[in-house]
Structures are given as C-alpha cells and as structure tokens.
Automatic annotation (TrEMBL):
This is Vanillate O-demethylase oxidoreductase VanB. It comes from the Bacteria. Transmembrane segments: none annotated. GO terms for molecular function: 2 iron, 2 sulfur cluster binding; metal ion binding; methyltransferase activity; oxidoreductase activity. Its cofactor is FMN. InterPro entries: 2Fe-2S_ferredoxin-like_sf, 2Fe-2S_ferredoxin-type, 2Fe2S_fd_BS, Beta-grasp_dom_sf, DmmA-like_N, FAD-bd_FR_type, FNR_nucleotide-bd, MRET. PANTHER family: CARNITINE MONOOXYGENASE REDUCTASE SUBUNIT, NADH OXIDOREDUCTASE HCR. Keywords: 2Fe-2S, Flavoprotein, FMN, Iron, Iron-sulfur, Metal-binding, Methyltransferase, Oxidoreductase, Transferase. GO terms for biological process: methylation.
Length: 321
C-alpha cells in the first residue's frame, strides 16, 4: 500500500553551513500544507528514485511552508547527494504528509535536548516549541566546527539562546560535552531527547542507561544505520497469515525484497531500519532484530519487526500480512 503524496515546489535552496543546505518547500498549488508537530519528518521522493526522511525544522504554526536541512554525507547511498546536486530552486518534488515518531513528551517536568551535527533539525524545532510554551529545557549541540554548525545564528538570535550550549570537536577540551556529568543523575519527570549520527546516539543512550535512566524517559531518532549483513546469515521462510502462502527469503535477500519479488507490497521508505515505515506484526517465530527503530523492550516482545533489514532466528516467521 502506498501513502498519498503531496506535490511541493522548492522556493529557496540555501547554504546553511559547510556541506549543509536548507530547502524551503511550499505546496505546488499554493494551498496550505498539512500541520505538523515538533519532531516530525517528511518522506522526500528524490529525482533518482530514492525516498529519504528529513526532519522539519520550521515553526509548526506555519502552514505555508516546510523547511528541511540536508547534510551532504560522503557515505551517502545517493540520498543526500541527490538533494545537494540535483534539486534546484523551482523544482517540483513529491513528499509525504508529516509523520512523527519522535514527539515531545508533554508531561515532562524538564527536557534535556542533545543534538549531534545534522541531528539538530528535529531538536531545534523541539527547543523552539518548548521555549514558546515556557517549558524548562537545556540544549547541548555538538558539531565538528562552528562553520559546520547549522542554524547557529538562528539559535544565537533566539530568546532561549542562554539555554543552549555549543560543543565543537575542534574546540578546547573544557567546552566539549561531558556525557557522564550531563547524564549523571536521572530524575523523575526529566526526559532526554537525542538525535544525530548513530555513534553519537549510541554513546548517549549507553551512558544514560548505565546511569539508570528509565527507557520511558529516553527519546531518540536515527537518520541512518550501519549495514546489517552478516556472514552467518542463512535463508528462512516467511508465511502470510491471511493466505498461508510461504515466501522463501534467500541468504543475501531482505524480507522486503523477497516479498516484493513474490508480488507482496509492504510500504517502505528508508530501507535501513530507521524510519519504521515497514513495521510489520509477527504472529509466530523469532525475529533477528537489526533495526535502529524499536526500543529494547519492543524488540524483546518479538511481536513486530522491520522487514527491510531484520531477519529470522527461527526457520519461519508468520507475518500479519
């Protein structure tokens, strides 16, 4: 099943920082765009046929435009390069309506926001929303250099600038983020939000969990994932619960690809296990989870998995398809 898409026009592409561009999108027909909340993203259908997810970083009160920021990633599989090299002012693009897998917990007494590099895009929107509502928060923003720090001037001009701490890889040791100190004491009602490169998120979450932070207080969103193939991977079967049909998944094939080859369409986007679009219920069998989307508790339940990257530990999985 394919979700409806929106036609938008790029009205402004701008250099935001070294290797980071922003794209301002408006509805092609001039109408209002669907509403969104802080932490939301859109799927962007790129000129080369790929679909990638980009967080919205403008004010959610705006209905006339969406703003996204895109890092040119040297390890890109074609997404960021297409945005930087192929998309120009005036171009038409297809996008999804906003989705939010990374929302603010409005019951939080205080919020701790941690951004690494381009991970500032959803975190920025959160900071501005929290500031607008008068909520208590602190933002730590880690980047390689000041020149590679997106939205630095926008943050410095903001009323909440005193709550923001910048940390640069090329700066003095004293200004670098001390995760142990920052996350030392979990408190009831304090929620942690983190977004950025996988290594950054993994380090933050590992430190928080080691210090006793409850999973319900940890919120995160990955932009990409590392390859999950293993030399020990073998073939297995998936069965469609609705018909009983069995589909063979080869050693070097994803479940998503095997289903597609068999004429079974599952909605997908990132194909890296980060966006959750292809999330599928598992009725029987044990998944081999390789995604960056499900929480440890959700993985342990073994009642859902992401067929774009995850496999099976059992000989067969029965899927709710």
């Amino acid at each position: 099943m394919t979700s409806p898409t929106l036609n938008v026009r790029v009205v402004r592409k701008a250099a935001e920082a070294v290797d980071i561009a922003t794209f301002e999108l408006v509805a092609a027909d001039g109408s209002a765009l669907p509403p969104f909340s802080a932490g939301a993203h859109i799927d962007v259908h790129l000129p080369n046929g790929l679909v990638r997810q980009y967080s919205l970083c403008n004010d959610p009160a705006e209905t006339h435009r969406y703003l996204i920021g895109v890092l040119r990633d040297p390890a890109s599989r074609g997404g960021s390069q297409a945005m930087h090299d192929q998309v120009r002012d005036g171009d038409l693009l297809r996008i999804s309506a906003p989705k939010n897998h990374f929302p603010l917990a409005h019951e939080a007494r205080r919020s701790l926001l941690l951004a690494g590099g381009i991970g500032i895009t959803p975190i920025l929107c959160m900071a501005e929303r929290l500031a607008l509502t008068g909520a208590e928060f602190t933002l730590h923003y880690c980047a390689r250099t000041p020149e590679r720090t997106a939205f630095r001037e926008r943050i410095r001009r903001s009323a909440y600038a005193p709550r923001v701490h910048f940390h640069f890889d090329d700066g003095a040791p004293a200004q670098k983020l001390d995760l142990d100190a920052t996350l030392a004491r979990p408190e009831d009602g304090v929620h942690l939000y983190v977004c950025g490169p996988k290594g950054f998120i993994d380090a933050v979450l590992a430190t928080a969990r080691a210090r006793g932070w409850a999973q319900a207080q940890l919120h995160y969103e990955f932009f990409s994932a590392e390859p999950t193939a293993s030399a020990s991977d073998g073939s297995f079967e998936v069965q469609l619960a609705s018909s009983g049909r069995v589909v063979h998944v080869a050693k070097e094939q994803t479940v998503l690809a095997a289903l597609a080859a068999a004429g079974v369409e599952v909605q997908s986007a990132c194909e890296q296990g980060v966006c959750g679009t292809c999330l599928t219920r598992v009725l029987e069998g044990e998944p081999d989870h390789r995604d960056s989307y499900l929480s440890p508790e959700e993985r342990a339940a073994n009642d859902q998995f992401l067929p774009c990257c995850s496999r099976a530990r059992s000989a067969r999985l029965v899927l709710d398809l």
